[in-house]
Specification:
heterodimer, A: about 325 residues, alpha/beta, 4-stranded antiparallel β-sheet, 15 helices, about 40% helix, B: about 210 residues
C-alpha cells in the first residue's frame, strides 16, 4: 500500500540528512509503527507521506501512485491525519470538526451528518450529547477521540498518526489504545503510527520499524524484534526486560496444557497474557493456574514450567535468527 | 449654565453644527475604513511571512508612538490643508493598531491547529478563511476598536489643518475664549468616541466565534 524507496530529506542548515536513504514497504491493512530516538526521522518520514514536507530524493508510492504525481491537497484529503496535540478547531463544534474533510470534499449535508454521528458513536462519544459541544469543553482523552473520528471521516484507506496517545495520562492512554485496536479490526486501514514508546509500538504494531539517524535499523513483527534484535542498539532500545515484553504478546490460551490431575485453585482468563499470568503466580505463590474462557469454563492449565519453556523457545529462536 | 448656552448655540446654528458633525463622522469613518482595508490584509499576510514581517511591525510600532497632532502637522507641509490631507493623516494614525493586532492575532493561532488543517487537506486560502481569521477575530477587533477611538478623537485635531469637523468649535472656542462654543465641539466629540468604543466592543463580542 505504501512503498518508500531510498527516501532522503535534508533540512537547510543541518549537516546530516534527517531521512537518509530510507526504504520501507507497508502492506495493505497493516499497522506500521515508526519508532526510534528523537531526531531519527520518524516524524519527518510520516510528514513526507502526505507531502506536508517535500522529499529531496527517493520515491514514495501510496496505492501504487507516486505522491509527487498527486496534488498535495487532494492527497491529504485522501489520508487520515492525527497528531499528538489533536489540533481541533476551537471555534467549531465537535460535529463540525468531524465533518471537516467531508465538507472539503463537498459531500451533501445529510450524508455528512449521518457520517459524523456514526463516527462519534464509533469512538465512544454519544452524538446526542457531544455533537454541539466545543473542543474546550472536552477532556484530553475525549479530544483525541474526536481527533481520530475526524481523521476517519472520509473513510481514507491510509492513516498517519503522530504519537496520537502521547499526551494522555497512562490510564486514558491504555484505554484509547485498546479501543483503537478494536476499531482497527473492523476497518482494515493501512496505518503509519509514530511513537517513541516501545511498549506502545509492540502493542499497536503489526510491524515495527526501528529508525536511527534517518535510516532503517530493523523492520519486523514485534515478536521478532523482541526475540532477535539485530544489533546492540535495537537490543538496548527494546529494553532489558524484553523477555517479559515477549510474554505480554502470548496469551494464556496459547501456552496452556491439557488439564491433568488436580485443578489449580487460582485461575486466569484465556485472553490474558503470559506476563499477567506470571505476575499472578508470583503474587499468589502458585505455580499453576486454571485457564478459563469467557464463559468461565476451564479450558486447560498454565504452569510456571510452560511459561519458562516459552521464554526458552524465544531464546533459541534468537540464536536461530542470529545464524540466518 | 454653560451647558444651556452651548445648547442655545446649537439651536441658533443648526446648519453649522450638523455640518461639522457630519464632516467629523465622515472623516473618521472613511479613515477607519481605509485603514482596515489596508492594514488587516497586510497584517494577515505578514503573519504568513518571516522576513518582511519584523520590519513592518517595527515600523508600525514607531508609528504607534507618534502623537496624533504631530502626524497631522507632518502632513500639512506635504499635502496642504483640507479634508483629504486630514483623511490621509487620520488613516495613518489608524494603521498601526490594526496592523499590529491583525499580525499578532494570526501569529497566535495554535500551530497544531494549522498543522491539522493543512494535514487534512485545506488549501492555504481555506486555512486563512476557515481557521486563522475566525480564531483571530477577537484580537483583530480589539485593534480596530483602539483605532476607531483614536481616529474619532484624533479627528478633532483636523481643525488645525482645515479638515473641518467638531474640532472647529473647539479651536474657535479657545481662540475667542468662548467656553460654550468649545463645549459644542468637545461634548459631542467625547460622546462620539465613547460611542465608537461601545459599537466596536459590541461588534467584537458579536463576531467572536462561540467556541473561543
Amino acid at each position: 500500500m505504501i512503498d518508500i524507496v531510498s527516501l532522503v530529506k535534508r533540512f537547510p542548515g543541518t549537516s546530516r540528512a534527517a531521512v537518509d536513504g530510507l526504504t520501507l514497504s507497508i502492506a495493505d491493512g497493516e499497522v506500521c509503527v515508526l519508532i526510534g530516538p528523537s531526531g531519527c526521522g520518524k516524524t519527518t518520514t510520516m510528514r513526507i507521506i502526505n507531502r506536508l514536507l517535500e522529499p529531496d530524493g527517493g520515491t514514495v508510492r501510496v496505492g501504487g501512485r507516486s505522491i509527487m504525481d498527486i496534488d498535495p491537497v487532494s492527497l491529504r484529503r485522501s489520508i487520515g491525519y492525527v497528531i499528538q496535540q489533536v489540533g481541533l478547531f476551537p471555534h467549531w463544534t465537535i460535529a463540525d470538526n468531524v465533518a471537516t474533510v467531508p465538507r472539503l470534499l463537498a459531500w451533501d449535508e445529510a450524508k455528512t451528518t449521518a457520517r459524523t454521528d456514526e463516527l462519534l458513536t464509533l469512538v465512544g462519544m454519544d452524538p446526542r450529547a457531544y455533537r454541539g459541544r466545543f473542543p474546550r469543553e472536552l477532556s484530553g482523552g475525549q479530544k483525541q477521540r474526536v481527533g481520530v473520528a475526524r481523521a476517519l471521516a472520509a473513510d481514507p484507506p491510509v492513516m498517519l498518526m503522530d504519537e496520537p496517545f502521547g499526551a494522555l495520562d497512562p490510564i486514558t492512554r491504555t484505554r484509547l489504545q485498546d479501543e483503537f485496536l478494536k476499531i482497527l479490526c473492523e476497518l482494515n486501514k493501512t496505518i503509519v503510527f509514530v511513537t517513541h514508546d516501545i511498549d506502545e509500538a509492540i502493542k499497536m504494531g503489526d510491524r515495527v520499524a526501528i529508525l536511527r539517524d534517518g535510516a532503517l535499523v530493523q523492520y519486523d513483527t514485534p515478536e521478532k524484534i523482541l526475540a532477535a534484535p539485530v544489533d546492540p542498539f535495537v537490543e538496548s532500545f527494546v529494553g532489558a526486560d524484553r523477555a517479559l515484553k515477549r510474554l505480554s504478546l502470548i496469551s494464556a490460551d496459547d501456552a496452556s496444557e491439557r488439564l491433568a490431575g488436580a485443578l489449580p485453585s487460582g485461575s486466569i482468563n484465556a485472553q490474558a497474557s503470559l506476563r499477567d499470568a506470571l505476575a499472578q503466580m508470583l503474587e499468589s505463590g502458585a505455580d499453576a493456574l486454571a485457564v478459563v474462557d469467557a464463559a468461565a469454563r476451564v479450558t486447560g492449565v498454565l504452569t510456571l514450567a510452560s511459561i519458562r519453556a516459552h521464554t526458552r523457545l524465544a531464546r533459541s529462536a534468537d540464536t536461530q535468527a542470529m545464524k540466518t | 449654565m454653560l451647558l444651556i448656552e452651548a445648547w442655545q448655540f446649537i439651536l441658533a446654528n443648526p446648519g453649522r453644527f450638523f455640518g461639522a458633525l457630519a464632516t467629523h463622522v465622515a472623516l473618521s469613518a472613511s479613515a477607519l475604513a481605509l485603514a482596515i482595508a489596508i492594514a488587516l490584509p497586510t497584517g494577515v499576510w505578514l503573519a504568513g511571512t518571516r522576513r518582511a514581517a519584523l520590519l513592518a511591525i517595527a515600523a508600525a510600532n514607531i508609528g504607534r508612538t507618534l502623537p496624533s497632532l504631530a502626524v497631522l502637522a507632518l502632513v500639512m507641509p506635504l499635502l496642504g490643508t483640507g479634508f483629504m490631507p486630514s483623511l490621509f493623516a487620520l488613516t495613518l494614525l489608524a494603521l498601526p493598531p490594526i496592523l499590529i493586532n491583525s499580525y499578532t492575532a494570526v501569529r497566535q493561532v495554535d500551530p497544531d491547529v494549522i498543522d491539522a488543517a493543512r494535514g487534512m487537506g485545506m488549501t492555504r486560502a481555506e486555512v486563512v478563511r476557515k481557521v486563522e481569521l475566525p480564531i483571530a477575530t477577537p484580537v483583530i477587533f480589539a485593534g480596530i476598536r483602539t483605532a476607531a477611538v483614536q481616529v474619532v478623537s484624533g479627528a478633532v485635531l483636523a481643525a488645525y489643518i482645515g479638515g473641518g469637523g467638531l474640532g472647529d468649535f473647539i479651536t474657535a472656542g479657545i481662540a475667542m475664549m468662548a467656553l460654550p462654543q468649545l463645549l459644542v465641539g468637545a461634548i459631542p466629540a467625547t460622546l462620539l468616541s465613547l460611542g465608537a468604543d461601545r459599537l466596536f466592543g459590541g461588534l467584537q463580542r458579536a463576531l467572536t466565534p462561540k467556541g473561543l
